[in-house]
Amino acid sequence: MKKILLVLVFAAALPLKAAELRLAESVPAETVYGSTMTARPQAVWLEMIASAKKTLDIEQFYIADQAGEVLEPVLAAVKDAAKRGVKVRFLVDKVMLKESEKSLPALKEAGIETRVIDFKKTGGGVQHAKFFIVDGAEIYVGSQNFDWRSLKHIHELGLSIKSAKAASDLSNVFEADWALAGGAEPRKMFTKAKKPLVTSAKPEKAALDGGEVSYSLAYSPVNFVPKGADTEIKELLDLLNKAKHTVRGQVMTYALEEHGSKRWADLDSAFRKAAARGVKVELVFADWAMGGKADRDIKALARTENIQVKISVLPQHSSGMIPFARVEHLKYLSIDGETAYITTSNWGPGYFLTSRGVAVFIKGRPAAAVLEDIFNRTWTGPYAQPVDMLKEYKPVKRV
After folding, report:
1. Core vs surface per residue 127-143: b (16+ CB within 10 A) or e
2. Disulfide-capable partner of 203 in 48, 56, 214, 384 (CB 3.0 to 4.6 Å)?
């Protein structure tokens, strides 16, 4: 009996296993990119999906597969999960259904339940988040769409989090969006609900590359966030308002007006206020951001003291033009080398105010160091050049 009691006391004294974070970077083929501090998403996805024993919930903007390409084995793994008894649910947005419906029938045939959400009708924007949840124990969130090009021809960034807490919190968002796709009323799911979904915003400690960090999740849009959870734009603005030394990061597009929206300068003002305090702000936007109304605001931002802006143009692949590819699509910031922000949202009013997005805020040098490495390779690499104030940029040919 004494021996059993000693074992129980010893077991109780052991620390609970910390959450684990792993960053995954999509590296466009034939480029100089690829941090040695990041994993590659296809390998991470295949490992996670293969580990599923009970449930696999996937929420994506769309699906775009091509025979013989890198997403094919991922979709095969999803189907295999269903065949071995895993309950698999797959949710996509209506606005990209023409693309997704090429893959949805095969998923249904494999016993996977699928739904389409009309987030434009629900929130005014799109379901732009990209994430999945495995067995209520691990999640993946990132800029990568479920698109073969996102794994092979686009610069992207995401991360996996092994944590029952992260899975539980994100599952609340998935369940709400799944219900909305099934016909539930938005007000019954979020702000006006009698029994609202409750999610904890409390940070959780985690391990990353042998170091300790803490992370928390945040969501967009502002009116479709579970009770108790953080709103992405609020947390982002708070982070920028506390910046003391440096703000570095990348995003595909940057806009103060989108799709007929009112002018929205909250994020732009936060960058400018940080610069006015003496913070060094360095930002890289994709060439897809240029050639339209946003040019004026991007150039104005770049004229601000302490703010530098570069535009990145990735070279075409040797095989020729690949539609909707060869672009910087990752979305992140590193603040003071201490805090990392990784999101599924581009930086404009439509993403924060009307579209579904998921973000991860990570406090700790180990996470920021990875983003700094990715950023430095871009900032000093051959593809990014300072925005040309005198140049009349033309829209990038995407097809």
Report:
1. bbbbbbbbbebbbbbbb
2. 214
